[in-house]
């Protein structure tokens, strides 16, 4: 559609001008602000009633009736009293051991004055000191006795020679007696293969255990008696048995006697050779065990 050609120039221009848009925008903004100002309102809210609080204390005595208006909270009812206009917390925290609503005047008992004691007057005693007598002291002269001189010892060469000879003879006799003593070597269960005679002890153990298991005590097998004992076996140089001693008993005489019998059955033993050739007697101490299963062992 085209505009007529005879329109004035201000109307001939088509569209909305910028000034019109600005004016319309300002008008709308004014309307919105006016609506907000007139539509919103402010009011003050009334505060709610504040609840009253009470402090907590301890009552010093107990009242039968409950007070109408309490100033504090406590474990018992207590009627207020006193001379103060305002409430005050009791000054003591101790509870009274008795209850009484009336105040009574307490009069302390009169104190008894101690009776004065009569002191007897001291009697004056007059004494007269005897006059000192002058005595003439005589000096006693002490006579010094001469000290005896120490006598010089005299030596007799023949007597000394006889005493020395006697001592030499006594020493030689002691050496001979010591040389006649048997050389005894003891082997215990703590011995190892490096000990002197350890190999002999091991061979001896094997033989004794073999003989012992072959001759296990029949009564101990039948009655099922078991136990341990400690035995010392002393062997001569030629392998013969010297003695058998029970060092620690098993508590069963049957087992103690059986162990000694087994050692005697196993004797004689091998003679001493090698590193035991210079030993006259060998003592072997071992623990013997008669265990369940009717088995004998020693260590």
TrEMBL record:
Stretches that traverse the bilayer: 24-45
Keyword line: Cell inner membrane, Cell membrane, Membrane, Protein transport, Transmembrane, Transmembrane helix, Transport
Gene3D superfamilies xrefs: 3.30.1150.10
Biased composition (Low complexity): 121-130
InterPro entries (UniProt xref): TonB-dependent_transducer (IPR051045), TonB/TolA_C (IPR006260), TonB_C (IPR037682)
Region (Disordered): 103-159
Membrane topology: Single-pass membrane protein
PROSITE patterns, per the entry: TONB_CTD
Pfam family name, one: TonB_C
UniProt domain TonB C-terminal: residue ranges: 201-297
Listed name of the protein: Energy transducer TonB
